[in-house]
TrEMBL record:
The gene is MICOS13. Component of the MICOS complex, a large protein complex of the mitochondrial inner membrane that plays crucial roles in the maintenance of crista junctions, inner membrane architecture, and formation of contact sites to the outer membrane. PANTHER family: MICOS COMPLEX SUBUNIT MIC13. This is MICOS complex subunit MIC13. The lineage of its organism: Eukaryota, Metazoa, Chordata, Craniata, Vertebrata. Belongs to the MICOS complex subunit Mic13 family.
Length: 138
């Protein structure tokens, strides 16, 4: 009688195991979806060579600016047709001229500089913190 199903017994145990299975399956599904999105993003970055020169990155940003708004409009029209909802028309996105070439190298240099001094700064800040704690405990 330990693990077997008895006819006429309440279904609450079976429902609980079904709910547990669903939750475990849902967690695995969420993990797979997130992993697929992350993998797709990595593939897209590699395929479009976005980590290459700034010319390629700027061209990809321009291409995305041309492709994404029409795709969003088509998707919103599809959702309206399928659900019967009326989605208000969004204003056109502003035209932004952001020269990646001018800021790309400065950003990389800033990040690498911060990473290179991080160990010495961490040591310096920990010494200051230790001195502060010692002074306060006396």
């Amino acid at each position: 009688m330990g693990g077997e199903c008895v006819l006429g017994a309440s279904d609450s145990g079976q429902e609980a195991s079904r709910d547990t299975w669903f939750l475990q399956d849902w967690k695995a599904g969420k993990f797979l979806i997130k992993g697929s999105v992350a993998g797709g993003a990595v593939y897209l970055v590699y395929d479009q060579e976005l980590l290459g020169s700034s010319d390629k990155s700027q061209a990809a940003l321009k291409k995305a600016g041309e492709v994404v708004p029409p795709a969003m409009y088509q998707f919103s029209q599809y959702v309206c047709q399928q659900t019967g909802l009326q989605i208000p028309q969004l204003p056109a996105p502003p035209k932004i001229h952001f020269p990646i070439r001018d800021s790309w190298n400065a950003g990389i240099i800033t990040v690498m500089s911060a990473l290179s001094v991080a160990p010495s700064k961490a040591c310096e800040y920990s010494k200051e913190g230790w001195e502060y704690v010692k002074a306060r405990t006396k």
